[in-house]
Amino acid sequence: MRRALSAIVVITLLLWSSSATAQSGPSNCSVVSQNLYVRDVLSDLYYWNQFLPSVNAASYTSPEAYLEAVRYRPIDNHYSYITSAAANTAFYGESQFVGLGFTWTVTNDEMRVLRAYADSPAAEGGLARGSRIVEVNGQDVDPLIANGTIGNAFGASEIGVAVDLVFESLTGERQQAHMVKRVVTIPTVSLTRVFEVDGKRVGYIFFTNFVTPSYAALDEAFATLRDAGANELVLDLRYNGGGLVDVAVHLASLIGGSKTAGQVLATYAHNSRNTALNKTLRFESIERPLDLQQLTVITTRSSASASELVINALRPYMPVTIIGDTTYGKPVGQYGITFCDKVLAPVSFALKNVNGQGDYFDGLPATCGAADDSTHDLGDAGEAALAEALTYIRTGACSPGAERMSRALRAAPPAFRLDGFRALINAW
Fold first, then answer.
1. Neighbouring C-beta atoms of residue 73, cutoff 10 Å
2. Sign of torsion, CA 118 98 244 307?
């Protein structure tokens, strides 16, 4: 079975000068062969390959179990993953996944819906921003959160899996819904608006993921802002788990405009066996750019990978203000290696900006703290994070309560952290 180096975070295919075993793929699709193949790929391509423990790969019950056993901790607790080839293709190619179609958060022992996608089982079942989920399949949510099993409560990501929910609306009305998982399309750009702020025309884009359909969606959104005369931008990345590096290059170039065209955006650094893959990424030349002088970004702990790359890449060229909470913390990327019916995505390289900055494993901190205010709709000027962003654009400073909010967010218990492929989709 031929090995394919696919586009997990890089659209351009690269020639991977690896061992013959890894190049040709596993000898068959038995568990042992798959485990040995993953071992060979990691030995060659994994960014931290020098730290791989010497264990018997054949003794593990699955390639996923083997990867979990050998990943480089404490850094790679959440990054490298194995997923199905079908799920990988659907997400990166069509911005689709199998699920109920909603994004949520766990805070203060509560589970609240942050977003329900249009035409999804979640939206059809009545879930909306701010809904509080009380029961999942007859189980109270509180103990599921307490014992760390809430992530498994919704069942497998397979078409036809049924989920029964009890939830409360923002007004306190209790409702029940029976939902069945199916293919859901994630809108890559779901909101594009312009706000008038003290004579400034502030564009607002809510951007969800860096996948192939994002190119056209971003081009359309920026054209809309350009035609509206926007001269400031709030880029909302609060639930954006990342995706393709080439899409990040395109977005950063749309923002940077003429001042960044042709300049260094980022550099790749691979392990010592793959230095031939090291390269420099440059900003694109964009026709009729906005030519922004500064950027304001809204982030949460779910803003990861390519989202962080855009922020880090632009910082040497313009002021970038982060509103909200510290980002996820993922300054590394993966290649997708197809084998059998799966895709292995091991951390394979680090990305640094033109100034060599890129070790933000603890995330990029917010300039002005702001809550993700689920009592208001996304794109509502009264929503706490967007209101703080508009305040900063108007005054050049954080609001009086922003530092207090930053301290509260830092002091809050660690949020439920999604892993690997699930962190990219960031929805159920």
1. 9
2. positive
Distances (CA, A) of 18 to 41, 46, 80, 180, 351: 8, 11, 19, 43, 21
The pTM (predicted TM-score) of the whole model is 0.93
CA separation for the pair 374, 160 (Å, rounded): 29
3-state DSSP percent of the chain in helix, strand and coil, to 5: 30, 25, 45
Q: pLDDT by residue (tens digit) across 280-304?
A: 999 999 998 888 999 999 999 999 9
- Give tens-digit pLDDT for 204-229: 999 999 999 999 999 999 999 999 99
**Nearest-5° Cα angle at 221, 333 to 305:** 15
28: exposed, middle or buried (Cβ count in 10 Å: 0-12, 13-18, 19+): exposed
At position 357, the amino acid (one-letter code) is Q
**Cα angle: 31, vertex 84, 129; to 5 degrees:** 140
Burial class (CB in 10 A: 0-12, 13-18, 19+), 162: exposed
79 in Cβ contact with 85 (< 8 Å): no
